[in-house]
């Protein structure tokens, strides 16, 4: 009974969010957020990985995340929410030094989460993922014929966190290169969608579609095979026919969920992959 009640609450929340999106624009609602295009075309791990190296590919481009061995790789929902918060703060306030709040609870609330204790509570999870994320390095590689282009980005140069209840000026200073990357390449998204999505894969698909539909020049659209989509999004699935089949089922499920909110996206599900055509953006670009 508890599960059914919880499921009903989530369904109602999704419907109310959809109605709000349809009736009030993200601009009027002041719910525009940002994410760097690096994480729009590739993604972070969905679940915990014991390795300290993670690689995802999108065509000729690859994204690698190299973790500090002491802490491990960032994964799941929380580092995605943190990255969206970082990018949004930079775009709105144009500063590489970000104030996290006077204590951990204040920062968790800034992320749109409720502070909860315990082993699996939000306080523990945010703390763990913050350390993992801010101690990681991102490497972007582009290979095409005889061209090899790469860029290594440290996310944060330095930071100060206090987990207690005392008041401290918790802050981080983004690296110059990552700050520039956010300023120059971030795309707008609707934070109302992010707030109701609890699935890392759904968030990745939503962000990816908002990015991908903007750069389609071919009137006929583009086709992306399930194999390529699995390379980009399916890090948790085995490299077998069964693994591909399981990935396809889950991807389609989450894609339909994303399209519930982003209904103007022009995407078709085919036997061998996806067909995407140029679509109206979910959120228009703004000049800052």
Précis, in short:
This protein has 288 residues and is of the alpha+beta class. The protein has helices at residues 2-23, 26-29, 37-41, 77-93, 104-110, 122-134, 176-185, 191-196, 200-212, 226-233, 241-261, and strands at 32-35, 53-58, 61-66, 97-101, 137-144, 147-154, 156-160, 170-174, 187-190, 222-225, 266-270, 273-277.
Topology, element by element:
Layout: H1 2-23, H2 26-29, E1 32-35, H3 37-41, E2 53-58, E3 61-66, H4 77-93, E4 97-101, H5 104-110, H6 122-134, E5 137-144, E6 147-154, E7 156-160, E8 170-174, H7 176-185, E9 187-190, H8 191-196, H9 200-212, E10 222-225, H10 226-233, H11 241-261, E11 266-270, E12 273-277
Antiparallel strand pairs: 1-9, 2-3, 3-5, 4-8, 5-6, 7-8, 10-12, 11-12
Helix pairs in contact: 9-11
Give the low-pLDDT segments.
none
Listing every helix as H and every strand as E from the N terminus to the C terminus, the arrangement reads HHEHEEHEHHEEEEHEHHEHHEE
Mean pLDDT: 90
Question: What kind of assembly state do the chains in view correspond to?
Answer: single chain
Task: Give the strand line-up of the largest sheet.
Answer: 2-3-5-6
């Amino acid at each position: 009974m508890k599960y059914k009640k919880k499921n009903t609450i989530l369904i109602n929340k999704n419907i109310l969010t959809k109605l709000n999106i349809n009736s009030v624009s993200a601009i009027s609602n002041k719910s525009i957020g940002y994410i760097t295009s690096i994480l729009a075309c590739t993604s972070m791990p969905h679940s915990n990985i014991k390795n300290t190296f993670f690689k995802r590919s999108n065509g000729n481009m690859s994204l690698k995340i190299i973790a500090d061995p002491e802490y491990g790789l960032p994964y799941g929902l929380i580092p995605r929410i943190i990255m969206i918060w970082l990018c949004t703060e930079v775009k709105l306030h144009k500063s590489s030094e970000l104030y996290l709040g006077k204590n951990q609870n204040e920062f968790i609330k800034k992320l749109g989460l409720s502070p909860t204790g315990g082993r699996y509570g939000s306080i523990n999870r945010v703390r763990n993922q913050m350390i993992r994320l801010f101690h990681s390095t991102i490497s972007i590689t582009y290979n095409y014929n005889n061209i090899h282009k790469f860029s290594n980005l440290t996310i944060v140069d330095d930071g100060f966190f206090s987990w207690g209840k005392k008041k401290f000026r918790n802050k981080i200073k983004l690296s110059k290169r990552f700050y520039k990357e956010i300023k120059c390449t971030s795309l707008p998204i609707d934070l109302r969608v992010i707030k109701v999505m609890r699935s890392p894969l759904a968030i990745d698909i939503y962000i990816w579609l908002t990015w991908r539909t903007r750069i389609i020049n071919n009137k006929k659209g583009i086709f992306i095979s399930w194999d390529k989509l699995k390379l980009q999004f399916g890090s948790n699935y085995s490299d077998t026919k069964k693994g591909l089949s399981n990935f396809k089922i889950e991807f389609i499920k989450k894609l339909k969920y994303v399209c519930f909110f982003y209904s103007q996206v022009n995407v078709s599900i085919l036997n061998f992959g996806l067909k995407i055509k140029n679509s109206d953006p979910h959120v228009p670009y703004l000049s800052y």
